Amino acid sequence: MPTQYPFERYLNVRMAYDPSFSPEGNRLTFLTDITGVAEVWSVPIDMRSPFPAWPEQLTFGGERVMSASYSPVENVLLVAADIGGNERTQLYLLSGDGASYRPITNKFESIYSPGRWSADGTRFTYASNERDPRFFDVYEYAFATGQPRLLLQDDSTNYPIRYSPDGRYVLISRWHSNIHIQLLLLDTITLEVRQLTPEMTQGQGIHAFPAWSADGRGLYLVSNRHRQFHSLAWLDLASGEMTYLREDRWDVEHLALSDDSKHMALVINEDGYSKLELYDVSAGWEARAKMQTPALPEGVIYDVTWSHEGTRLAINIYAPDDSADIWVWDVQEQMLWRATRSSMGGIPRESFVRPSLIRYPSFDGRQIPAFLYLPQGVEPKNLPVVIHVHGGPESQARPFFDAVTQYFVAQGYAILKPNVRGSTGYGYEYQSLDDVRLRMDSVADLQHAALWLRESGIAEPERIAVMGGSYGGFMVLSAITTYPHLWAAAVDIVGIANFVTFLEHTGPWRRKLRESEYGSLERDRDFLEEISPINHVQDIVAPLFVVHGANDPRVPVGEAEQIVAALRERNVPVEYLRFEDEGHGLVKRVNRLVAYPQIASFLDRYLRQKV
Question: What pLDDT sits at residue 201?
Answer without folding.
Answer: 58
